[in-house]
Amino acid sequence: MKKIKSLITAAAILISGSAMAQKIVCPNVTLEDGTADLTFSIDENTDATATSVQFVLTMPDGISIEKDGPDYIVDKGSICQRSHTATALDKDNGDILVLIINQSELAFKKASGELAIIPILAKEDLADGTYQIQVTQVNITNLNRQKIAKETEFTINVTKGATGIKDINADGMQADGKYYKNGEIIIKKGNKEYNAVGAIKK
Description:
Elements: H1 2-19, E1 23-25, E2 29-30, E3 35-43, E4 50-58, E5 63-65, E6 67-68, E7 71-72, E8 75-76, E9 84-90, E10 96-102, E11 113-122, E12 129-142, E13 154-160, E14 177-181, E15 184-189, E16 192-194
Parallel strand pairs: 2-13
Antiparallel strand pairs: 1-3, 3-11, 4-10, 4-12, 5-11, 6-7, 8-11, 9-10, 12-13, 14-15, 15-16
């Protein structure tokens, strides 16, 4: 009987943990006059008790986070409490650790929404093209200090210049080619659309 109760309890914990899973998202961006804002949000949330978020950014050569004096600029998003702090720190390996934490252990105002805005800056001599920012080690913590991140890593594409891609929406286009669609590079071949790595989109 004890064994059955333990199995039921374990199953309940797994189901509960799955229901509470949350993830961080950030859309791809295009540099304008060498700058752009990375807007991070909490998405797909069913748990309103998340208190803190942290993640690591691996920046491509030629692109960096803007600074105010010696400090990186990280602006708090609309779901942050007044007691939340948002900072970014250099790691020994050159990556950047971003922290949005609440020492008072207050939950975010909403279960989903804008978390933080991080402005980025490109070197003047950066060639036109698409560059990738790697987001890894995503950790979302709730009031019970449980880790509830649904996904722990993703990639943000940063585009500079025309890159030979038509800056129009692919919807309704008859000709094959490369287009922007919802901030993403789409390759259209016949009636199918592919992303930049060849996966079928449609």
